[in-house]
Amino acid sequence: MSEPRTAIVTGAASGIGRATTERLLRDGWQVAGIDLNADMPAGVRAIIGDAADSTVIEAALDTCAGRLSGLVCAAGLAPNANWDDEAAWHELLRVDLTGPFQAVRVCLPALAAAHGSVVFVGSIVGPVEGSSRSPAYAASKSGLEGLARSLALVGAPSGVRVNVVEPGAIDTPLDPPRFPVNDRPDVPLGRMGTADEVAAAICFLLSDDASYVTGASLRVDGGRSIAPPAAPTRR
Asked: Is 137 designated active site?
């Protein structure tokens, strides 16, 4: 009988990170979760700390016995309204972009030992849309695309795949919606997505079904990125 697969999920206490953790646990994975909030799903190996701190990532990795089948970087700061605040700029990029880099840097040998898979949680903000409210958020999420492609090249000789999911309007506490959850004129499917729907995409990218997928960006946005910006498709 093969040993259970092991994953590290950052941001495991809420939103997309929590939904991904819960799904992996249901699927029989062993999960080490990293979050500043201790309220993580039952059954997770909880590591309380800053997901952008390499020592915290190392502590999570220590629970994985040297082999890591999955790394999901879901921790992140929400867009902020102080676009010209230099300290806020640096902190958002530290958590949302440098954090995932640090996680892969620390975990790559264990990922290589298991021919594991990495998934970054990005956003359509940045790669598709600009943000006058939070350029730092858009810059960090754009950066995740380039980071994923580059680390996919770094990891390929060791069989490590690196991809990014790019959610659109998702019903989580991260960013309050501008419209009602089930009445989104800016989304062709007419509603916000759920954290579980994004988790399903993440788990696909972690799975053997995606064994030939690396360096890719998978948008989970209900069609928002293809809708004409001046002509909402539904009301």
From this structure: yes
Q: How far is 163 from 148, CA to CA, in rounded Å?
A: 6
Q: How far does CA 19 lie from the centroid of its chain?
A: 11
Largest CA-CA distance found in the chain, in angstroms, rounded: 56
Residues 168 and 128 sit within 8 Å (Cβ to Cβ):
no
Q: Output the pLDDT for position 227.
A: 85
What Å distances lie between residue 144 and 5, 70, 80, 115, CA to CA?
A: 25, 17, 18, 21
Q: Which of 29, 101, 120, 137 is catalytic?
A: 137
Q: Which tokens hold the place of 232?
A: 């909402």
- The set of residues, in sequence order, having a beta carbon less than 8 Å from that of 87 and lying 6+ positions away, is none
Question: Coil, helix or strand for 6?
Answer: strand
pTM, two decimal places? 0.94
The CA distance from 202 to 168, in Å, is 14
Phi-psi region of 15 (alpha: psi -120 to 50; beta: other; left: phi over 0): left
Residue 158 is classified by DSSP as G
Residue 82: pLDDT band with limits 50, 70, 90: confident
Between CA 112 and CA 119 the distance in angstroms is: 15
Q: What is the rounded distance in angstroms from the CA atom of residue 172 to the CA atom of residue 195?
A: 7
State the Cα–Cα distance between residues 51 and 104, nearest whole angstrom: 12
Instruction: For residue range 111-137, list pLDDT tens digits in order.
Output: 999 999 999 999 999 999 888 888 999
